[in-house]
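[09:14] KT: can someone run the structure on this one? pasting the chain below
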Amino acid sequence: MGKYRLPSHRRRAAQEQEGINLVPMVDSIFNVLFFLLMTTTFISIYEIKSPIPLVSSEKIDEKIEKDKLNLLLEINTTELVLRNALEDKIFKRFARDITNPTLALNELHQFLFALKKDHPKEDMIIINPDSTIDYNFIVQVMDAVRELSKDDVLGGETSSKKTLLFSNIIFGNLSE
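[09:31] RB: done, structure tokens below
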């Protein structure tokens, strides 16, 4: 009779065990929280400063638009194409070399620098990259289009004056 318990003890033990066991739930939440904290440390956030498009009901003077370059830079896997967006006139094509990607960017920068000398008030360019283009290459293109290099002299001023080449960058294919 020593090995058997009285029935009243079984009932009392069953009544004490009726609560929810929170230990497995707290353990699983701790594991999920730990996993989330570990993965968020590896996420990099990039910011591209781009102006918000403005909508106006005023009519644009056609003479002013004809004087502008209306630069459109199309980026695909094989080349960079610089053209006039309104007239569909190609200024120049820059072949992309996979082994040396900065070659096309340097040629593009030099050509845009020559255009800026002829049109000093021009500050806008539209960039239209393919969806297959790497984000880092798009940032390199933006830097080549926007910033002057150390050797560039624009209107008698060196690049130490922080004059920008084409500061107003607009992305043309955000809906794709």
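[09:33] KT: thanks! The beta strands are 71-75, 79-84, 89-95, 124-129, 153-154, 157-158, 168-171.
[09:34] RB: yep, looked fine to me
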